[in-house]
Structure formats: C-alpha cells, structure tokens
Design brief:
There is one protein chain. The protein has one helix and eight strands; from the N terminus they run E-E-E-E-E-H-E-E-E. The longest helix is centred in the last third of the chain and has 4 residues, at 100-103. It has one helix at residues 100-103; strands at 25-33, 43-49, 53-62, 71-76, 93-98, 105-109, 124-132, 140-150. It has one domain: Jelly Rolls (Sandwich), CATH 2.60.120. The protein is mainly beta.
Length: 151
C-alpha cells in the first residue's frame, strides 16, 4: 500500500542536489503521514540518492504526533521498486524498525551497510516503510536528512 500523499520527490516538486566536487551535500526529504497511512507495510519514496554518489550518514526526524509504537524501516528501493532492497550493493536495509517517531525526535544514523554500497549511474529511490503503525489518530511530517558525496 502506498502513502495517501506523495512526497515532494515522488510528486516531482523536489529534485536531488548533485554535488559539484568533493563536498558533502545534505538533502532533506519529507513524507507527510496521515492516520490512514498507519498500516504495516505501507511504503513510499521519500528521497533520492543521486547517480554517482554514496551516502555518508542520515538523520531521521519525526514528530511525537506520529503516535506511540510508530516504527519505520528505511533503505534504497529494490530493482522492482516494490520494497526496500536487501542487496549488499544497496547497503541492505539501512534502518529496521526505527522508533524515533514513537516519542518524536531527531537522530543520526550511520548504517554499517553504507560501506558496501556501490555507486550507480542512475538515481536511486530512498524508501520509507511503516513496520509498526502509530496508535491514536497520528499525523505529521516524517523526514530524512540524507548526507552524501560524489563517489
């Protein structure tokens, strides 16, 4: 099941920032979530890892309004674009069952799988997948700040 609202990236309103040299780039990607989205395995494209780049770290930003028990998994899309890739050259699942949204917060994550990611000649989609729905009538903006550089 897809999210009720498209992210700015999926809607075509936000293009990825491509580094011009050796600098690090930090791109903020957001996914609006409404109560109807709180179903296990709901997923959507939240951002893009541009062609020829490698991720360095990322930050998960979630409001407490997403409800108790809220948890997500994050990673690159598989070849079919239907789920998070488990392939080593995509870094596997970057984060599994992150609970930042249960109480709200902002955390930095540097997955061990980042060391295995192989740069590609195409943009790759970053997916967010709800693993545990929030309780109540949760709504808010779930965001990922992705830091990356040219390979």
């Amino acid at each position: 099941m897809a999210f009720a609202q498209k992210s700015a990236v999926l809607a075509g309103h936000q293009n990825p920032i491509t580094p011009g040299g050796p600098e690090l780039v930090c791109a903020r990607f957001g996914q609006p979530l409404v109560a109807a989205d709180h179903v296990a395995d709901t997923l959507g494209v939240v951002g893009v890892l541009p062609a020829g780049t490698l991720p360095v770290s990322f930050f998960v930003r979630a409001p407490a309004a997403l409800g108790a028990n809220f948890a997500v998994s994050i990673g690159l899309a598989n070849a079919a674009g239907t789920d998070i890739s488990t392939a080593d050259d995509d870094g596997g699942v970057w984060v599994a069952g992150n609970t930042t949204g249960a109480a709200g917060g902002y955390i930095q994550v540097v997955p061990a799988g980042f060391a295995k990611i192989v740069p590609k000649d195409v943009d790759r989609k970053v997916l967010v997948k709800i693993t545990t729905p929030g309780t109540g009538t949760p709504a808010g903006l779930f965001a990922v700040d992705l830091v990356y550089a040219n390979a």
